[in-house]
Amino acid sequence: MTDALFAMVPLYGAWILLVATYLSCLAVPMPSSLMMLAGGAFAASGDLSLVGSAGAAYIGAIAGDQTGFVIGRRGGAPLVDRLRRRRSAAEPIRRAEAMLGRKGAITVFLTRWLLSPLGPYVNFLGGAMRMPWPHFTLGSVTGESVWVVVYVGLGWMFAGQIVLVAELASDVAGMLAAGAVAIVLGSMLFRKRPH
Question: Membrane-crossing residues (predicted)?
């Protein structure tokens, strides 16, 4: 499926990037980061517009975040309970809920690009937990801008080594996410230590 999606990037250009980022923000499994890398690479070769590719990916991501927030707001606690019953979503929901309860807009910002597997669940939970919409939107628009600029930009800058860049981006994102989790857990343990 991934190969078929990549083949669509030069054919459908910005539209496929918009759809991919939109769906990924709603927890639909999509290789949107890799597709943005491909969009940047095709822009470097002149097959796509750099601004068009980045703009479409950004608009799709923001629209997906906002849709997830509205779904969460309307679905409320029953939606969150249904998500928790799904085996694949139970742990991300728990982690996203804990982070949102402590850090709000910062959590939204970080889950757009650094802790992106939690992003869709933060969208739903932000709405369900009645997070103020301006706070959610601030975290969303700033975080998505980092995500899009990094991935489309890397694809554009390193078009000739796109496979290597994709592997490195995946490895770095994993290391950063692991480091962030280690810091959060360490601070929790530090706070719980006996005085």
Answer: 6-28, 146-166, 172-190
